[in-house]
Each structure stands twice: as C-alpha cells, then as structure tokens.
Amino acid sequence: MYRDNTKVIKIGNKVIGGGNNILIQSMTNTKTEDVEATVNQIKELTVAGCDIIRCAVPTMEAAKAISEIKKQISIPLVADIHFDYKLAIASIENGADKIRINPGNIGSIEKVKAVVDAAKERNIPIRVGVNSGSLEKDIIEKYGHVTADGIVESALNKVKLIEDLGYDNLVISIKSSDVLMCVKAHELISEKTNYPLHVGITESGTLYSGNIKSSVGLGIILHEGIGDTIRVSLTGDPVEEIRTANLILKTLGLRKGGISLVSCPTCGRTQIDLISLANKAEKIVEKYNADIKVAVMGCAVNGPGEAKEADLGIAGGKGEGLIIKKGEIIRKVPEEDLLSEFEKELQTMCK
What we know:
alpha/beta
C-alpha cells in the first residue's frame, strides 16, 4: 500500500508516514491572537481525538501567540501561512511544529528561501498545500481548465522548488471541493512521490453535505492505501470534524478503539422513541473507550436477533425494553430505566 512506503516525518511529538497510524487534524476557528480561547478550543479538540492542530496566522501578533499557546497544549501545532513570508519565519521562531504554505503566494524565490532556511535550521516540516482554486494561470491554460493533472503538476513543481533549495522535510496537501477530482489527483500523485500526503475534501460544506462529501472522498482515497493525515473540513464546530474523521477511520478498519454503535431504522413496529433513544445512547458511549460494539434496536420482537453480533444492546418495547448481552436477553426493564441500565452494563464492560 502507498502509505506504507511514504517518507517518515516527525511533527512535534507525533510521527507520520511509513505505515504509521493515520493522524487526524483539525483547525481552530478562534482568533489565534486570543491565546485563552485558542488554547481552550485545542484542548477540547484534543479530548475529542484530534492529533494535530492547525492555526491561522494572518498577523504578526498571531505568530507571536504561538509561543504561549504551545506551552499549554499537548499536540503538535501547525501554522497556516498565506502571502507574508515574515509570518512563516516568525511562526517557526515562536515554536510552530510545522508550517503550511503555498510557495506560489509567498512571493519571490528569495522569500521562499528565507522560509525554507528557517525551517531547515529547526528541522521542522513544511506542508506544501495546493488547492484547485489556487492553480497558476499557465497550468489552467495548459489543461484547458482545472484538472487533477494540473493540481498534481502544480504541487510537484512547488515541491521541486523547495527540494532545489536543499530541503526535503515535506508533507504534500492537494485539495479540491470536487470529490472525484480530488480522488483522481491523489491517485496520480501517490504514483509520483513518496512524501506523506495530508488528505481532505476542501470547502466540503455544512455538517450535512460536508460529512457526506468528506466520507465519500476520504473513504475512497484511504481505502486505496493513500493518505497519512486527514482533515474533515466542515462549516461548523471543529469537534464535529474530529468525530467524523474518527468514524471514517474506524469504518475502514484503519483505527481501533472507541465504541462502535449501530441502530436500526424506525418502522411500523417501533413502540418507543427510537430516534431519541439512539441519540442519547450515542452520547453515553462517547464517554467510554473500549473496542466493543453496541446496538440500539427499536423493536422487542426482532431486537435480540438483530443485536446478536453486538457486545451489548438495548431493544425498546411498549413502556419497557430489553438489555441484551452477547446476543442473550439478560433482563427486562421499564422504559424510563433503559438507558441508565444500559450504561451500568457498559461501565462494567469497560472496566
């Protein structure tokens, strides 16, 4: 598989590439200059399962804030830079574990070299990022429009630019909001380079559309053995990005740990508020970290059979419900006690 053969890169206290675990990234939406708000959000994301965090650095004040932020967090911090090479250098000097730049908008070769030299001095990786919306005019003219080939060519040109400056501590990111174009671009670039790839569907949309587009795109790319870090880009709470990314990796068998919850759709036999029951059960299982499967079923008739493959299950009935363990009914309880009894069993299994 491609990811088994990518170059190993160290980012702060994490390692990617070379078959290491696929790590989950997100990005703060606070003002980076607001150290307290940014630290609080990073800590919340860390608890949710974020492995690497990226912060926007649009001002020198934001670059200087990195130093204080780093003292209070436990995961690597990536500084996101556009246009001003001085911000990249200041971010590096203030302790960023990695910087994200598009050399095409940093400016002259001398400015790019200054950034590369600063990164080289501290041996921190540079993420070379290219989006479909930022392709150079000559590449668009060459291919007639924005294409996967054009995205890859643009990215590799920028990688070569940095390699020619004597640095190869690099991660590549190529993104598009067009899911199939993004998939194609990753298939192409994985054949042409062994640098680790950060994968995501950019500008994917709201919680609803963004989750669907990201799940489809990332699912295909990751299943093909491509990708070393991922981000689910959503217009919403960054914690939702982590939840979705975790579930994508678990669904593909690429991450273990954490409880897997399945629930049945509602039907005419349902005699309990299954939607509410399933949502509340999902919130309960988020508090526990065990590699088990739980099932929430809405019918006491078929529930036990449908839940037989789960380690723990509940099945609702009229005014009552069943607690099911390893496919066997262990007791019947009043509906109002169903979730509390479920959690008691869960606590026992997670000890």
